[in-house]
Specification:
mainly alpha; two-stranded antiparallel ribbon; 2 strands; globular
């Protein structure tokens, strides 16, 4: 949580700016609930939605998600099918823009300069290459 707050302090704003593809009257979870859940899945090395659901379905994980999203009404983790439904309808451009903003923030903060040069190719793939300074 500290890492997210430190490096991506504007992440909640960026998520709020994304166009929500869902019908508002049926929404139980916020966009932030889903986005942070996906980020947690990747950070924690969960390789499938099923393993994520099994691992995250405990009070500590729910508390962390509640703190990250600020969703005080969050009492349980969203079901993996709900997350999939949301991601299927969300424009890929929204996630691409979110990823671009995160990478730009890391570059602007010079977070990776002392270890790595980060190059992002036109397709959006990330390639990490040792800097010349480190290879001497």
């Amino acid at each position: 949580m500290r890492i997210i707050y430190h490096f991506f302090e504007d992440l909640p704003v960026w998520i709020d700016e994304m166009r929500d593809p869902r019908c508002k009257s049926y929404c139980i979870y916020t966009q932030a609930d889903y986005i942070y859940m996906g980020i947690m899945k990747n950070i924690c090395g969960q390789t499938s939605m099923s393993s994520m659901e099994e691992t995250f379905n405990e009070e500590n994980c729910i508390d962390i998600l509640r703190i990250l999203t600020g969703d005080k009404n969050l009492n349980e983790m969203p079901h993996k099918d709900s997350l999939n439904y949301y991601l299927e309808r969300l424009s890929p451009l929204c996630l691409a823009e979110l990823r671009t903003r995160m990478i730009k923030r890391l570059i602007r903060m010079k977070t990776l300069n002392h270890l790595w040069n980060c190059a992002v190719d036109m397709v959006g793939n990330i390639c990490l290459q040792k800097s010349r300074k480190d290879s001497r």
